Amino acid sequence: MLFDVERTTVAGRPALTVRGELDLATAPQLAAAVEAQLAAAPRSLVIDLTPTRFLDSSGARALMRTAKQAAAVGVALHVVCPRSNSPVRLTVDLLELDRLVPIVESPAEIATAVAPQDGRP
């Protein structure tokens, strides 16, 4: 399967939907897409791993870096990774990635978060 990072909207927030395998070869593409999104100074950013087929340690490292970058510039980050996506969730759980990256099960969990007050997404 081909890899793609698509700019989308999830729960009314700017998002990057990751399709394919997030690994050593493709993690730099996610990093570049994240940098482009953060350069626009959004209030929040969602990374949707729902259609992601595989996640290795390089992909997990890219997600950790994203969380650190987002926090440094005051952007609320949410990473959607449902338990039903067992190939990706296995890596997330084994690495205890949720300790460093804000993982949610579904976009519905994001929608219940506090909405931005200044009109920025």
Q: Could you explain the architecture of this structure?
A:
It is a single chain. By secondary structure, this protein is an alpha/beta fold. It has one domain: 2-Layer Sandwich (Transcription Regulator spoIIAA), CATH 3.30.750.24. Helix content is 36%, strand content 27%. It is built from four helices and six strands; from the N terminus they run ββαββαβαβα. The protein has helices at 27-39, 57-72, 86-94, 107-111; strands at residues 4-10, 13-22, 44-48, 52-55, 76-80, 103-104. Strands 1, 2, 3, 4, 5 and 6 form a six-stranded mixed sheet that branches.
Task: Name the descriptors.
6-stranded mixed sheet, 121 residues, Transcription Regulator spoIIAA, alpha/beta, disordered C terminus, 4 helices
In short, what is this structure?
Belongs to the anti-sigma-factor antagonist family. With 121 residues, the protein is of the alpha/beta class.
